[in-house]
Design a protein that fits this description.
single chain; 229 residues; alpha+beta; Jelly Rolls; Arc Repressor Mutant, subunit A; 4-stranded antiparallel beta sheet; 9 helices; 12 strands; 45% helix; 25% strand
Length: 229
Amino acid sequence: MQIEAFSELFPLLTAANPETLDWLLSVAVEHEYPANRAVLMEDAWGNAVYFIVSGWVKVRRLSGSGEDVVTLAVLGRGDFFGEMAILDESPRSTDVIALSAVKLISISAQRFIQTLFKDPQLHHRMLQLMVRRLRQTNLRFQLRHQPPAVKLANTLVSLGENYGHALPTGVEIFNIPFKDLADVTDIGVEETSKIMEKLDSKGWIKIDSTGQAIHLINMKQLMHLAGKV
């Protein structure tokens, strides 16, 4: 991967200087995983930071018995994970699973921390993105008493804005299983299914099971439902 493409793909790296990018690329390790494969297990958090080159993953919270599994987040191309465990050095009861075929690059914890100390601009950008994630968490908390349709619309719009692929027919995202959509949105699976069917019938979205995609056809209406316009 060229330095320019590396920087353009990952918002975290847009502020890094060319020397930093060149060094990160030289120490990065490439990974490929098929759908449904564990990408990062509970006991591996804190070893490295992972950048998503392509594909979709979900971050799951595990119970002590392993029977109660909840999806905390869905991440796509251009995002990263693993940084929190490096910074606070605490154990994690979560893992990361590939929703689709996924390509990642990883940078070891030690090298990533060294880079943050050497490049103040990258350090500052890291703080900005962490604050953004905190705000997204606060938004979910603020939406907890909103109707399920409003909450689900917020989830779809957020996924489209952060990871969607713009097409003439709308914004394309991965066909995320309803259970994962329900967990991330904090509503029931049955509610999620009914709302998605209704949105599909209205022509606001189109679920393409064959192509493993959800087309957000009418983003304006979805954003209006989500209360973002």
